[in-house]
Each structure stands twice: as C-alpha cells, then as structure tokens.
Design brief:
By secondary structure, the protein is mainly alpha-helical. Helix content is 75%, strand content 0%.
Amino acid sequence: MQYKNRVIIIVSSFILLFLICVSLLIGNYKIEVLKAINLILGNGDRNSLDYKVLWTLRFPRIIMAIIIGMLLGSSGAITQTLFRNPMADPYIIGISASGTFGAVIAFLLGLPESYFGIFGSIFSFITSLIIFKLSNGKRGGVELSTLLIIGIALSALLRAMISLAMYLVGEDSFRVVLWTMGYLGGGDWKKIGILLFPLIFSLIYFYLNRYNLDIILLSDEEAHSLGIDIKKFKYKVLMISTFMVGFSVAFSGMIGFVGLIIPHLVRIIFGSSNIKLVPLSMFYGGIFLLLCDTVSRGLSSTMEIPIGIVTAIFGAPFFIYLAFKSRKGV
C-alpha cells in the first residue's frame, strides 16, 4: 500500500477515536470530561448514574453504529460489484426495504429479536434474486435504467406493505415508524452480540475469497477459464451480502446511502480492486455512520433526529451527482 494511503488510514483511525470520545459526551444527560475519562479507565463509581449512562446506553450505541456502518458499507461495495453497477445501493434498489419488511413480519408474529435479522435476511435475499434475474443485460451486466425502475417499484410496494403493518399494529406502531426512519437508540450489548455474527462471518468469507471477488467483474467465459463457477459464486456472494443487510436493518431500520457513498469514495482514493474496496468500505462505513449518529444527537438539545434523515441529507445530493455523471458517460 502506498505511503499516502497509509497516512490517510492512520488519520482516519484518529478521526474515529475522536468521534467515539465526542459521541460519549453528547446527550441530554451531561457527563463531565474528567468523570468520563475516570469511568472509562475503571476509576469511577460503578453505582453512579454517570457509569450506567456511559456503559449501558452510550457505549453500546456507539459500537452498534460502527458495526452497522461496517455492514452497510461493505455490503454496498459487494452489491455494486455483483450487479456490475456503481449505483446499486441496497437502499435505492429496495433490498433494505425488503429487510425491514421481513423484520416487521417477525415483529408482528411476536418472535424474539434474534429472529428479526433472519427474517430480514430471507426477504432481502428473495428481493435481490428478483432484481438480479429481471435486470440482467445482454452482456451479463445490469442495465442502469432497468435496475432503478425495478428497485423503485419494489421499494414502493414494500413501503406500502410496511405502512399496512403500521396500520395493523395501531397504537403500538412507534417501533415500526422508527424502522422506516432509521434509529440506533435501542442499541444494547445483546444486539451487538447478534450483529457480530454476520460481521465476523462476512469478514472471514470475503477475506478467503478476496481474489475471486475481482473475477466477478470479468465475463463468465473468462471466469470459467480461471476455474471459477461464476454463477454459483455470485449466488453465494449475493446470499452473504443480503445476510448483512438483513441483520443491519432488523436492528437499525432503513438507513440509506451508506452503501452508495462509501464505496465510491473508497474507489476514488484507494482504487477499485475488491481486495481493498471491501475491507476499506467496511472501515469507512463504520466511521461515516458514527459521524451521522453523532450529528443526529448533537444538532438539537431537546430531540433526536432519526439517523436515516441525516444519511439522506448527505446521500441524496451524492446520488444526483452520480446520476448526472452516469448520463454524461464520464
């Protein structure tokens, strides 16, 4: 890796550390900096309210924001590679909406939280398969216009189904509303434990297949000549990518544009090889979502802005920029 890129990663690591410190101090309940440092170092009173706020509310939320950002950032990079299209963000083409719908179904059935991610993953996978089958172009790539039309149509249908679920739930629909806007306030150590499973599993899988991920970008004939069953491999990658999205939206709701913005920025700085793109999209996805969560909690002292709104403020202009860039064929 080039010296310049190493410096960027080291600086980014310090930015992540700084964001964690700032995020620990932000909130309606104020904790003094020195008290917070003492509590982190294990020198404070463990029965104090400061300790409980720090270790049972803010730390779990910060870690959950980083993990979900890592899952969304890397799954965005994988989805774009799989569809051979830089605008194939799981949020835009309806995969996140289907994951949310799956989690809502599990909620309506009264299942434990651990099932939300499983249901979200199943519905995300089904939607991905439909999009994958319907939008394949003549050369094995994906037509952008077809991809967006199918994605928008599926998103509209699934959002309507989620609205119907909110109507059926009635007065207890607040949790479903939060899913639709993105919310990290329910973070706890149990959810982090569940989220670590898709994170570690995907990390191991993508590391073991880091060279094969670049072969997806070749034609099927070229991949076959290299000894890869490209069709079988694509389905495995699709399954794991939707597995990551499903668990993310099950615990945080629909947080859009992370999978669109981060892989693009990583490609500009570090290049397009998946050997670097996937792990770095994971790293910067975590930083980006923690930044958005810190902003969503810090903008107002009386109320918290849903994180999905903050990521949309960043992401929508970026999406328009990409659309114009794609139209010009740059």
